[in-house]
Amino acid sequence: VRIAESGGNLVQPGGSLRLSCKTDGFPFRSYVISWYRQAPGKERELVVSISGLHSDTNWLDSVKGRFTVSRDNVENTVALQMNSLKPEDTAVYYCNARSHSYSYWGQGTQVTVSS
Q1: Closest Cα partner for 108 from 29, 31, 47?
Q2: Alpha carbons 93 and 44: distance in angstroms, whole number
Q3: pLDDT in tens, 10-36
Q4: pLDDT the model gives residue 69
Q5: How far apart, in Å, are the Cα atoms of 29 and each of 50, 76, 78, 102, 109?
Q6: Do the strands 17-24 and 77-82 form a parallel or antiparallel pair, or are they unpaired?
Q7: Is residue 112 pLDDT above 90, yes or no?
Q8: Staple 3 to which of 13, 29, 87, 106, CB 3.0 to 4.6 Å?
Q9: Distance (Å, rounded) from C-alpha 99 to C-alpha 115?
Q10: Which residues contact 51 (CB under 8 A, 6 or more apart)?
Q11: pLDDT at 53 over 90
Q12: Residue 83 scores a pLDDT above 90
C-alpha cells in the first residue's frame, strides 16, 4: 500500500495551494479518502472526506466555501484545492484511506500560511 501526499508549501494569506494524494495497492473505489490536518500543539482534525462510489463529501465547517475536493477513480488520486488560505490553515495535511477493515495513512505534507 502506498499513499503519498504532495503540494504543500509556504503561501501568503489569501493564496492558494493544491494538494495531491496518490495511492496504490488497494481497491481505491471501495475506500473513503479523507484529508486531515494537524497544527502544532493541536489534535488531528478531519478536513474533508469523500466517498468512493458517489463522491459524497463531509467538510470541516471552517474550510467550507474555500476548499474543494475531487477524486479520480481511474488514477487513484484525490486532490484538495485550497483557496483563500488563512494563517489558521497552517498544519501538516495527511491523506487517509479507510474501509470497514483497514485504514492507511500517508506521511503528510506541510502547509504554511504566513506573510
Answers
A1: 47
A2: 9
A3: 999 999 999 999 999 999 999 999 999
A4: 97
A5: 11, 8, 11, 14, 23
A6: antiparallel
A7: yes
A8: 106
A9: 39
A10: 32, 57
A11: no
A12: yes
Q: What distance, in Å, lies between the first and last C-alpha atoms of the chain? A: 37
For residue 85, the model assigns a pLDDT of 98
66 CB contacts (<8 Å, ≥6 apart)?
82, 83, 84, 85
d(CA 115, CA 103) in angstroms, rounded, equals: 36
Residue-wise DSSP of 33-70: EEEEEE-TTS--EEEEEE-SSS--EEE-GGGTTTEEEE
**Residues paired with residue 96 on neighbouring β-strands, in sequence order:** 34, 105
Cell of 34: 479523507
**77: its cell numbers:** 488520486
